[in-house]
């Protein structure tokens, strides 16, 4: 079985619709066909200041949501990044193989550091993509299911892996991004030229999966569209309507072309009402399940303990080989 690995930050508590459609939904599907490793990346989360109690709660909440989304600990390895020390250990080696200029070109770093300001930007935020390189290479992942915003980090991973292989001998699988075209980038409901984002979207622009379904329906109904009235897919000229159309297509399993046809002669209100219904029908049971899982923190911790054990078995082996290749003496 080919292997997949991916991660999601626990920050913000609730996942949003972009996280689900861009990534987590594919994770659920890939666990059936692939040897799948999925993690909650708490080490990545602290690149931006986090309150310790909130972080603890968010990590459990993230696991609860992944289970609610259909991840099955019997079918995949589900773990917390900080439980597997090999991530930071391999990251150091990869830090020493990554150029400063190369790391400086990461657009997520540029965006996030601009937001944090010079004083608020930590070295951790800068080396974050290199920790992600280690995340992926430790498991020899063939594919990495993510949204479009993570493509550059997967490309960096390929470059650094190829460099290691060239320097020290064939050691790492070069991973490919697994990005579905239709859901690669879900847009902000209020600002449909920007992606839906935990850190950048306004409250009204973002669909939080754990919000009251009623609140979500309201947000969808007040999504920004345009001054025309035709329901037509045209991301350039009609980004708002196009975003609603692709959301609707993805969630109902129909095509955008079919939707265009069925909404011929109808107004934006009809599309919004239908989409609000489709989203809440999905989100209401999801939310109920997630909150139920959250009610039993001991069970969540048990899932993570088992996941960490399985993850460490793989990660430990890769790390030992990498350390040896680099020239570190074994500790005996
Ligand atoms: P994170 O936590 O920001 O996002 C989790 C996943 O959601 C996707 N995503 C979106 N997809 C489509 N449209 C959107 N508007 C949207 N917003 C977010 C992201 O692309 C991502 O797949 N650095 C990563 C986490 C990570 C990771 C890894 C991923 C750490 N190590 C190793 C893969 C492999 C991140 O911050 O994702």
TrEMBL record:
<comment type="subunit">
    <text>Homodimer.</text>
</comment>
<dbReference type="InterPro" id="IPR002306">
    <property type="entry name" value="Trp-tRNA-ligase"/>
</dbReference>
<feature type="binding site">
    <location>
        <begin position="9"/>
        <end position="11"/>
    </location>
    <ligand>
        <name>ATP</name>
    </ligand>
</feature>
<comment type="similarity">
    <text>Belongs to the class-I aminoacyl-tRNA synthetase family.</text>
</comment>
<feature type="binding site">
    <location>
        <begin position="18"/>
        <end position="19"/>
    </location>
    <ligand>
        <name>ATP</name>
    </ligand>
</feature>
<dbReference type="InterPro" id="IPR001412">
    <property type="entry name" value="aa-tRNA-synth_I_CS"/>
</dbReference>
<keyword id="KW-0648">Protein biosynthesis</keyword>
<dbReference type="GO" id="GO:0005829">
    <property type="term" value="C:cytosol"/>
</dbReference>
<keyword id="KW-0436">Ligase</keyword>
<keyword id="KW-0030">Aminoacyl-tRNA synthetase</keyword>
<dbReference type="InterPro" id="IPR002305">
    <property type="entry name" value="aa-tRNA-synth_Ic"/>
</dbReference>
<dbReference type="GO" id="GO:0004830">
    <property type="term" value="F:tryptophan-tRNA ligase activity"/>
</dbReference>
<feature type="binding site">
    <location>
        <position position="186"/>
    </location>
    <ligand>
        <name>ATP</name>
    </ligand>
</feature>
<feature type="binding site">
    <location>
        <begin position="195"/>
        <end position="199"/>
    </location>
    <ligand>
        <name>ATP</name>
    </ligand>
</feature>
<protein>
    <recommendedName>
        <fullName>Tryptophan--tRNA ligase</fullName>
        <ecNumber>6.1.1.2</ecNumber>
    </recommendedName>
</protein>
<dbReference type="GO" id="GO:0006436">
    <property type="term" value="P:tryptophanyl-tRNA aminoacylation"/>
</dbReference>
<feature type="binding site">
    <location>
        <position position="135"/>
    </location>
    <ligand>
        <name>L-tryptophan</name>
    </ligand>
</feature>
<keyword id="KW-0067">ATP-binding</keyword>
<dbReference type="InterPro" id="IPR014729">
    <property type="entry name" value="Rossmann-like_a/b/a_fold"/>
</dbReference>
<dbReference type="Pfam" id="PF00579">
    <property type="entry name" value="tRNA-synt_1b"/>
</dbReference>
<dbReference type="InterPro" id="IPR050203">
    <property type="entry name" value="Trp-tRNA_synthetase"/>
</dbReference>
<keyword id="KW-0547">Nucleotide-binding</keyword>
<dbReference type="GO" id="GO:0005524">
    <property type="term" value="F:ATP binding"/>
</dbReference>
<comment type="function">
    <text>Catalyzes the attachment of tryptophan to tRNA(Trp).</text>
</comment>
<feature type="binding site">
    <location>
        <begin position="147"/>
        <end position="149"/>
    </location>
    <ligand>
        <name>ATP</name>
    </ligand>
</feature>
<dbReference type="InterPro" id="IPR024109">
    <property type="entry name" value="Trp-tRNA-ligase_bac-type"/>
</dbReference>
<keyword id="KW-0963">Cytoplasm</keyword>
<feature type="short sequence motif" description="'KMSKS' region">
    <location>
        <begin position="195"/>
        <end position="199"/>
    </location>
</feature>
